[in-house]
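Retro notes (design track)

What went well: tokenization of the new backbones is finally stable.
What didn't: we kept losing track of which sequence belonged to which structure.
Fix going forward: every design gets posted as structure first, then sequence, in one message. First example under the new rule, 495 residues:
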């Protein structure tokens, strides 16, 4: 996908995308709501029970930011927001800004781990340091700050500094956005250049950002994974923002593209041509770039509204299909995921494929229609899951240890790893929806270290990921000291 911002600030930080051929010297001046993927479910829509566990669907909204699973108006994915601030990405000091893909708050009735959240830090992982994924998300908005209007050498310097910051903290992996809105941060035959490269969608920046990022990451011993949002086209319903070289432009008058008023424009997950496009887009990256992995976050179905893909579902029923709408939608996503996995492995068996689902399994299952259970109980879907466990130990309805154990216990394929997604954006901030744990991130400066320590006890532990880069390395003055302390404690257990 994260920082704790006010709803108003999160809204203001959303970038509208310029249309092909139109010039915009400052895309940040063209502000619009980059809507969340989901809208309110129709009151008549009956949700289905998820396998084994029943989790609350009450959204967990971090301070000043909104849930991807709720009907809101902020862009919410790992690594968004403050990248468009005036703060330089070359800063080496830890920071907190950016908005997050928030998850909803699971409320499990099961008795989970009794491990004390106050456990001592400093324990070494049972996973070797070379095998433990220590990742940070770097979003399209953060890349925009380093990239737009910059020369090749300037971008190489900025991204190099960002990667230096990551390695100095003890990290070994970066998840970098390469396609956020049916676009590309690389030279693509399928998608137009991202507006976040130049300020104009479809305009060639004169160099290949992904090529440079791969080079600079590998020069520092960092693994680099290409982060993709598969279905999102635009965060606005304004079709004039779609570049004529985008595949979405040619499909505007078809059911392959769906426009949600006040929400955005998305590819229809039920359409086979859409699945083909997503698979071909991944193949293009793996074939042409030495990336270490492909990374999807939790942007799947954008709505629970039955009308979204009604014609496709009716055709399915007419052909003798018997699945419920929910099950059918999950199957559409599963078919895409399975094909992506197969395509990656056919090109480079060592290239990893992972997904970062929301922290609330009920929202995953019934709102986003991403069937995490299937992915981790069967071979041929993912190499890892990185659930967004953006909760403190003291969270009132979703304490970190319980959510961590819930995901760990789901995994039955021995090769599937659990990477714990952690909320660096919450450092020093009030966690408004955490109940009695609302001040936990203000009163403690070792939460991330303790969360890594706890995650290392998970049976399927493979590492952790921090949301987000700007939260750690471009601090706002009011949280800077807390971030520095958190980073110091984190470094201690990573050394």
């Amino acid at each position: 996908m994260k920082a704790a911002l006010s709803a108003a600030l999160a809204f203001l930080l959303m970038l509208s995308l310029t249309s092909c051929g139109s010039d915009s010297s400052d895309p940040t001046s063209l502000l619009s709501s980059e809507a969340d993927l989901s809208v309110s479910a129709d009151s008549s829509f009956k949700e289905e029970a998820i396998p084994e566990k029943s989790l609350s669907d009450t959204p967990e909204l971090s301070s000043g930011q909104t849930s991807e699973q709720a009907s809101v108006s902020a862009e919410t994915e790992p690594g968004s927001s403050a990248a468009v601030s005036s703060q330089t990405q070359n800063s080496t000091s830890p920071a907190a800004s950016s908005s997050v893909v928030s998850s909803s708050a699971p409320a499990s009735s099961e008795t989970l781990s009794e491990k004390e959240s106050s456990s001592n830090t400093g324990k070494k992982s049972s996973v070797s340091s070379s095998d433990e994924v220590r990742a940070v998300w770097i979003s399209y908005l953060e890349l925009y700050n380093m990239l737009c209007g910059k020369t090749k050498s300037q971008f190489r310097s900025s991204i190099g500094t960002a990667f230096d910051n990551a390695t100095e903290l003890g990290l070994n992996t970066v998840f970098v956005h390469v396609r956020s809105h049916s676009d590309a941060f690389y030279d693509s035959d399928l998608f137009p250049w991202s507006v976040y490269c130049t300020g104009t969608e479809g305009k060639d920046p004169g160099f290949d950002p992904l090529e440079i990022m791969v080079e600079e990451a590998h020069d520092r011993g960092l693994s680099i994974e290409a982060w993709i949002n598969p279905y999102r086209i635009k965060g606005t319903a304004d079709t004039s923002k779609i570049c004529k070289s985008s595949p979405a432009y040619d499909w505007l008058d078809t059911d392959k593209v769906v426009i949600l008023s006040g929400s955005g424009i998305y590819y229809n997950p039920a359409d086979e041509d859409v699945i083909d496009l997503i698979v071909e887009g991944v193949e293009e990256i793996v074939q042409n770039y030495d990336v270490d992995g492909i990374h999807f976050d939790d942007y799947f179905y954008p709505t629970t509204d039955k009308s979204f893909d009604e014609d496709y579902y009716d055709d399915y029923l007419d052909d003798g299909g018997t699945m419920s709408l929910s099950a059918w939608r999950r199957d559409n996503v599963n078919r895409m995921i399975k094909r992506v996995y197969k395509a990656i492995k056919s090109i480079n068996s060592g290239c990893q494929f992972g997904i970062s689902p929301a922290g609330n399994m009920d929202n995953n299952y019934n709102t986003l229609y991403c069937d995490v259970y299937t992915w981790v109980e069967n071979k041929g879907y993912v190499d890892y899951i990185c659930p967004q466990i953006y909760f403190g130990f003291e969270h009132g309805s979703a304490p970190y240890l319980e959510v961590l154990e819930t995901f760990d216990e789901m995994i039955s394929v021995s090769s599937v790893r659990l990477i714990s997604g952690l909320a660096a954006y919450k450092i020093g901030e009030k966690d408004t929806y955490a109940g009695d744990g609302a001040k936990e991130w203000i009163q403690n400066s070792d939460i991330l270290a303790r969360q890594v320590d706890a995650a290392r006890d998970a049976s399927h532990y493979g590492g952790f990921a921090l949301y987000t880069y700007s939260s750690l390395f471009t601090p706002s003055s009011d949280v800077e000291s807390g971030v520095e302390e958190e980073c110091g404690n984190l470094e201690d257990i990573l050394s």
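Added context from the reviewer: Residues 7-494 form a domain with the TIM Barrel fold (CATH 3.20.20.80).
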